[in-house]
């Protein structure tokens, strides 16, 4: 049997399109990476067996055995029960009923298994090996189709009493006629700062805008736009696109500042597809962040872009296993 | 030497007017309580010696010795350095320079000592023996001259990287022409929901109000009002006072909802002088809270009034000592 320090971790990042895997050292260095397509047919019943097969097959390929691993960590969409290791309501996986993920993967691989939701796991990854510099207090937000968050404080994730800790996408940022959110309330950050939210803001501001603007013309011509197009046009100084970006980044800066006024993390890390807008986004969010933070928070909490990209999930998942199974 | 389980805790609540003391069991039951006036003369140099004297004198009175105690916990105004056990910038104590509180009290009493800021300590007290029901996740807000907060998550206080965790009084709740706060930014919760903030809101709304109102008449007559007077008039259905209370409780509900969207605590506990308005306040805050919380948070996080009153500080201080020194 391998020495504890030589043992490895397996990180799994379960998404609606692909399932990413990695084998990592206890220090979080990735040694192997691979991925498979997510087969969501038949109510997602193929997903867990395909994860088990992918791990067992890969171990055989490398001539490795289960006892050389500390365990498996995984990030999953949907509502995760940490204790039971089950998932329910992951609609992009067609998982409508309770899935016994931990039970099945432990039986199928002979390894210990731990699970958390995908935004939390990405937060752990960015905190451990990315922009979070392994600090004890890191706030993470992911701007994608939706807006998710993961909060690390005193070195641990904040789940709250019922697992809704970190729902920064559902912080109310607009109290005057805010958009209706899929969650049922109005004015959530997600309604204006997700990829779809940014497009919604652009469409509404275009209706009121009467000047020259490529963005306005594009929308008037009935062409599809994306949040990336809005940011690209803003970078080219399109006046309407700049107004949209200002509005969106003001909301983001407000929500992140208010999170930082509560948590005073070392870093607020912005990830997800929308964060590809880079420093152009960061500079504007940071301005609104500084305008809304308590002085000592302004001086000690820094806003940053995520650095790990797609790897945040598998790295954070590996940290989960390390935290759970290494004493 | 006494058995560990028989040992006692000392809790100290240092305020600008009085210093409260209590001797408690390890279960948090108060056995003795006393207090002394705070002597802030001579740059507050009498404060620490008077704390030491008060403890030593009381122990002598009860024929007790230092080794019968686990240690002393204390809550203090100002900026507290937890590790060093020092305090600076407690202006209501005239403490402008660094105070070596831990060093001096440990030397003077022969007991171990631990300190945190007063809002955090009150939060710990309410969480342990009050409305927080000893849950692992409790958010506490105190509405007094200012607005303070203490956040407990995963069973521990959240201090953040530089001690500003829990600054809920400086969460931005008004982004359109919010009042200037003493902290230098605009629209902080404290500017509208502290005792002085409520009076400010009342004065401004009275200027615009043209109907019949005892509150308006009182202000027009140049009489002084207080937040208590505003709430009392609202309870008597004064139309302007009701508008003021609605505005204030909407801001409070928004800020507490957004904190709960991040932390999903079991309880959000409202304490401090303004909370004496009781269920009249709570009902209105809760309505705004529910309008701004993510569904799963709305269902699992409850807003409550604090129950310990003035004793929250000494009880929370005792918990600090228990947490620090009982392994």
SSE arrangement of chain A, N to C? EEEHHEEEHEHEEEHHHHHEHHEH
The named CATH superfamily of the largest domain in chain A: ATPase, nucleotide binding domain
Helix content of chain A: 40-55%
Largest sheet of chain A: 5 strands, mixed
Indicate how many domains the architecture of chain A comprises: 2
Strand content of the residues of chain A, in percent? Answer: 15-25%
- Principal-axis shape of chain A equals globular
> What is the structural class of chain A?
alpha/beta
Straight-line N-to-C gap of chain A = 18 Å
Name the CATH class of the largest domain in chain A: Alpha Beta
CATH fold descriptor of the largest domain in chain A: Nucleotidyltransferase, domain 5
Instruction: Give the C-alpha Rg of chain A.
Output: 21 Å
Low-confidence stretches of chain A: none
GO molecular function (chains A, B): ATP binding; glucokinase activity
Pfam families (chains A, B): ROK (PF00480)
Family (chains A, B): Belongs to the ROK (NagC/XylR) family.
Protein name (chains A, B): Glucokinase
How would you sum up this structure, described in words?
The structure is a homodimer of 327-residue chains. With 327 residues, chain A is an alpha/beta fold. Chain A has 2 domains: 4-124 and 311-325, 2-Layer Sandwich (Nucleotidyltransferase, domain 5); 135-306, ATPase, nucleotide binding domain (Nucleotidyltransferase, domain 5), CATH 3.30.420.40. The first copy, chain A, is built from 12 helices and 12 strands. Chain A has a 5-stranded mixed β-sheet with strand order 3-2-1-4-7. A 5-stranded mixed β-sheet of chain A has the order 10-9-8-11-12, with helices on both faces. Chain A has a two-stranded antiparallel ribbon with strand order 5-6. In chain A, helix 8 crosses helix 9. Chain A is globular. The mean pLDDT of chain A is 96. Chains A, B: Its EC number is 2.7.1.2. Chains A, B: Belongs to the ROK (NagC/XylR) family. Chains A, B: This is Glucokinase.
């Amino acid at each position: 049997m391998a020495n504890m320090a030589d043992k490895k971790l397996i990180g799994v990042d379960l998404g609606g399109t692909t399932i990413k895997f990695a084998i990592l050292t206890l220090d979080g260095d990735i040694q192997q990476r691979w991925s498979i397509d997510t087969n969501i047919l038949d109510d997602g019943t193929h997903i867990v067996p395909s994860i088990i097969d992918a791990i067992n097959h890969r171990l055989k390929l490398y001539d490795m055995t289960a006892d050389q691993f500390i365990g498996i960590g995984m990030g999953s969409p949907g509502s995760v029960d940490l204790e039971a290791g089950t998932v329910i309501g992951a609609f992009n996986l067609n998982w409508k009923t309770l899935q016994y993920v931990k039970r099945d993967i432990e039986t199928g691989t002979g390894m210990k298994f731990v699970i958390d939701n995908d935004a939390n796991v990405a937060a752990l990854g960015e905190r451990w090996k990315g922009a979070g510099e392994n600090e004890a207090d890191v706030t993470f937000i992911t701007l994608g189709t939706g807006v998710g968050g993961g909060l690390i404080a005193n070195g641990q994730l904040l789940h709250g009493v019922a697992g809704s800790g970190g729902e920064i996408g559902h912080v109310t940022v607009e109290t005057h006629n805010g958009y209706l959110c899929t969650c049922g309330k109005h004015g959530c950050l997600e309604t204006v700062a997700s990829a779809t939210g940014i497009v919604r803001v652009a469409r509404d501001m275009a209706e009121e805008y009467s000047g020259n603007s490529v963005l306005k013309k594009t929308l008037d011509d009935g062409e599809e736009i994306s949040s990336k197009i809005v940011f690209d046009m803003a970078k080219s100084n399109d006046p309407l696109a700049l107004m949209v970006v200002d509005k969106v980044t003001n909301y983001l800066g407000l929500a992140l500042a208010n999170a930082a006024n509560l948590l005073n993390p070392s870093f607020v890390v912005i990830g997800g597809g929308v964060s590809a807008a880079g420093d152009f986004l960061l500079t504007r969010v940071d301005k609104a962040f500084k305008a809304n933070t308590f002085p000592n928070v302004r001086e000690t909490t820094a806003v940053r872009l995520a650095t790990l990209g797609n790897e945040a999930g598998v790295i954070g998942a590996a940290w989960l296993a390390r935290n759970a199974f290494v004493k």
